[in-house]
Amino acid sequence: MQITLDLPEDLFSKISGLEAQIPEVLALGLDELTARPQEGFNGFSEVMNFLANLPTPEEVLALRPSPGLQTQIDQLSDRYKAESLSKQEALLWKQYEYLEHVVRTAKARAYLKLQEQTSVA
Question: Which residues sit opposite 65 in a β-bridge?
Fold first, then answer.
């Protein structure tokens, strides 16, 4: 199906040269926009917003994915291991890997900060 869009100049400049990837961008964006709020985090933007609020080390260490997101990650992991990811799923998998890296780094730093606080007290 073909559609025609009127885009602001700044958005148009961001997608110039990515025309072949626009269906993937739309699919991922719609997935993020329509994610149901649940306990835990649902995606990259929620984790970044959580960390931007400068949580306590305890809050960082308590951070967990929502049950729905964990199920999705588990399913993608199974498909990844079976080498049967679609192009869109492979991109989503890479994003989850990066998100996991960010969360692990934040948790490691939070743990070290708690250790420092404990040794000083």
Answer: 41
* Model confidence, pTM: 0.62
Q: Which long-range contacts (CB under 8 A, 24 or more apart) does 25-32 make?
A: 27/88, 28/88, 28/91, 28/92, 28/95, 31/92
Q: Hey, what are 67's tokens?
A: 């049950």
Lowest-pLDDT choice from 64-68, 74-78, 106-110: 64-68
- Residue at 84: amino acid letter: S
Residue 36 DSSP label? P
Q: What is the DSSP letter of 37?
A: P
| Among the listed residues 49, 46, 51, the one whose alpha carbon sits nearest the alpha carbon of residue 35 | 46
Backbone φ and ψ for 85, nearest 5 degrees, come out as -80, 140
